[in-house]
Specification:
The chain is of the alpha+beta class and about 160 residues long. It has a single domain, classed as Glutaredoxin (3-Layer(aba) Sandwich). It is about 30% helix and about 25% strand. It is built from four helices and ten strands, in the order E-E-E-E-E-E-H-E-H-E-H-E-E-H. Strand 4 and strand 5 form a beta hairpin. Helix 1 runs parallel beside helix 4. It is globular, with a radius of gyration of 14 Å.
Length: about 160
């Protein structure tokens, strides 16, 4: 049985429990493509709930991009779900322009549909979904790159 747990020091918000099937969702990315979670089966998916005005989010987004670059060939997909009210063109300008992200998909969750399905109440909440669609981890890692990478590496071998 797969177990979700806080794996690394500094990561919080997760509790040990039996694996939970991740609620499916579909979003349109700012590049106009459809991203459906269930279509990613066979890959590990990391998604994070951010907004441009959040200082911690501005730290986490580039680290998520580095994770996508580092682990992408091993089957990792990373999605930033922006929960602010900015139009797509502003999200493109911020995430791909100002922050220079190149390896993550960005989509707006302005109505908080996905955030509600996952019970998200804190910016910077990250969800890691395993290759089989189970939620392996959900919590916060507070911009600690080594904690994020450790969580992802563990998910990739599960």
């Amino acid at each position: 049985m797969a177990v979700a747990a806080t794996i690394a020091a500094g990561a919080s918000g997760a509790t040990e429990r039996a694996a939970i099937r991740s609620p499916d969702f579909t979003v349109r990315t700012v590049s106009g493509k459809s991203f459906r979670l269930s279509a990613q089966r066979g890959k590990v998916v990391v998604f994070d709930f951010l907004v441009p005005s959040c200082g911690e989010c501005q730290v986490e987004a580039p680290l998520l991009d580095r994770a996508a670059q580092r682990f992408g060939t091993r089957g990792l997909r990373v999605l930033v779900l922006d929960v602010g009210q900015s139009p797509d063109r502003e999200l493109v300008s911020f995430y791909y322009g100002q922050l220079g992200l190149r390896h993550v998909a960005v989509a707006a969750d302005t109505r908080l549909r996905v955030a509600r399905r996952y019970g998200v109440t804190l910016l910077g909440t990250t969800v890691i979904v395993g290759r089989d669609g189970s939620r392996l981890w959900q919590g916060t890692w507070f911009g600690h790159e080594k904690d994020l990478f450790r969580l992802i590496a563990r998910a990739l071998v599960t």
